[in-house]
Amino acid sequence: MTAPPQANTTRKALVLFSGGQDSTTCLAWALDRYAEVETIGFDYGQRHRIELECRQTVRAKIADQFPHWAAKLGEDHMLDLSLLSQISQTAMTENVAIEMQANGLPNTFVPGRNLLFLTFAATLAYRRGASVLVGGMCETDYSGYPDCRDNTLKALQVALSLGLDAPMTLETPLMFITKAETWALSERLGGAALNELVIEDTHTCYLGERKLRHAWGWGCGTCPACELRARGYDEYVAGKS
């Protein structure tokens, strides 16, 4: 389990915030730890672009329901990375069935996505005076994406810090915990109110489904993202009983 956050009264963080469960938990984690927190999102032509609307709702509700975090929550930034969808033929950017590929990766893998996200985020962080990037990458419960692995991100942290000639820390609080533990972490950070916000207002479903309501939230219930979120929620609930 991730250790309880320790407050940092000086450093500024930029959270990669999609509006999903993981990035919302990471936003709460950063707000509990850092003096000032800004968010960044990316429009890359994703099939589930409903998440871009959800992220604004989540930010507004966090500011409203958690006043001790509201004063730390700074600006939001949205970057247009639509070029990514023009060079990536994946189930995340095109209306095709989700399936495994010959290389052993699901076709929801968008090559280079996290590498680009973090590079652009670091560029913005440098200009905004932030020295910490926070992302929801995880290699415990995940689809095998190589750009979510800890070693990938450690290497990128070195490259970004050298390239900017300024220390840039990449924090991944979910890297080594399960999805059930992610539910537990958000509860530890913001209580039942934060988990209810995650259930009601965040978006995970790859297909962009917001009409079907489950105990764990909205989604089709059958895509890999929904199945992972549902399984983690069931394990989290079972662990509390």
TrEMBL record:
Q: What EC numbers are recorded for this enzyme? A: 6.3.4.20
Which InterPro entries would you find in this protein's record?
A: QueC (IPR018317), Rossmann-like_a/b/a_fold (IPR014729)
For this UniProt record, the keywords arranged alphabetically read as follows: ATP-binding, Ligase, Metal-binding, Nucleotide-binding, Queuosine biosynthesis, Zinc
Question: Can you state which reaction this protein catalyses?
Answer: 7-carboxy-7-carbaguanine + NH4(+) + 2 ATP = 7-cyano-7-carbaguanine + 2 AMP + 2 diphosphate + 2 H(+)
MF term (GO), any:
ligase activity
Binding of ATP: at which residues?
F17, S18, G19, G20, Q21, D22, S23, T24, T25, C26, L27
Q: At which positions is Zn(2+) bound?
A: C205, C220, C223, C226
Cofactors required: Zn(2+)
Gene3D superfamilies on file: HUPs (3.40.50.620)
> Which pathway does UniProt place it in?
Purine metabolism; 7-cyano-7-deazaguanine biosynthesis
Described by its record, this protein's role is as follows: Catalyzes the ATP-dependent conversion of 7-carboxy-7-deazaguanine (CDG) to 7-cyano-7-deazaguanine (preQ(0)).
Report the sequence similarity comment from the record: Belongs to the QueC family.
Name of the protein: 7-cyano-7-deazaguanine synthase
**Record gene name:** queC
